């Protein structure tokens, strides 16, 4: 994928992350100074990860699914775009729920840096459909210069 396109995507998604963070900050009555506002979740402190989960080879054990280990994101806010292959799962209570892919939809995840106020959801990827590749892009806004307290 072209670098320019990825950078442009990152800029748009960061804009959404900033709007969401500002709304959350307002809801929590956090006082943000002008500097904090302008430095808030800037592109330069974010990460864009583009993933390709390949088709499974016949060598793999039957039923074994390719994916990503269970984790929470270490970000402030992550914005994920997945294709329609499926495989993302979130933990609700003690149960794993499969996230049904919806076309043209972004998935917003709160990360560990929001931990005091909210709890980031544990998630993982288990790609059950071995016949197709899965692609996803995750923009993690790290907001290194922002302190919530
Ligand atoms: O590929 C996915 O759907 C999940 C990616 C993810 O959880 C991450 O980058 O932290
Ligand atoms: Fe994640």
TrEMBL record:
Pfam families: 2OG-FeII_Oxy. Residues 43-149 form the Fe2OG dioxygenase domain. Residues 124-149 are annotated as: Disordered. Coiled coil: none annotated. This is Fe2OG dioxygenase domain-containing protein. It comes from Brassica cretica (Mustard).
């Amino acid at each position: 994928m072209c670098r320019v396109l990825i950078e442009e995507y990152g800029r748009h998604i960061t804009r959404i992350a900033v709007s969401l963070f500002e709304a959350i900050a307002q809801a929590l009555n956090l006082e943000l100074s002008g500097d904090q506002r302008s430095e808030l979740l800037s592109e330069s402190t974010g990460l864009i990860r583009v993933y390709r989960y390949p088709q499974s080879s016949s060598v793999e054990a039957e039923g074994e699914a390719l994916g990503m280990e269970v984790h929470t994101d270490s970000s402030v806010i992550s914005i994920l775009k997945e294709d329609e292959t499926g495989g993302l799962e979130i933990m609700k209570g003690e149960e794993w729920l499969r996230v049904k892919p919806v076309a043209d939809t972004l998935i917003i995840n709160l990360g560990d840096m929001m931990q005091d106020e909210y709890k980031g959801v544990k998630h993982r990827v288990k790609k059950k459909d071995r016949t197709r590749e899965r692609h996803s892009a995750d923009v993690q806004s790290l907001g290194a210069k922002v302190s919530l307290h």
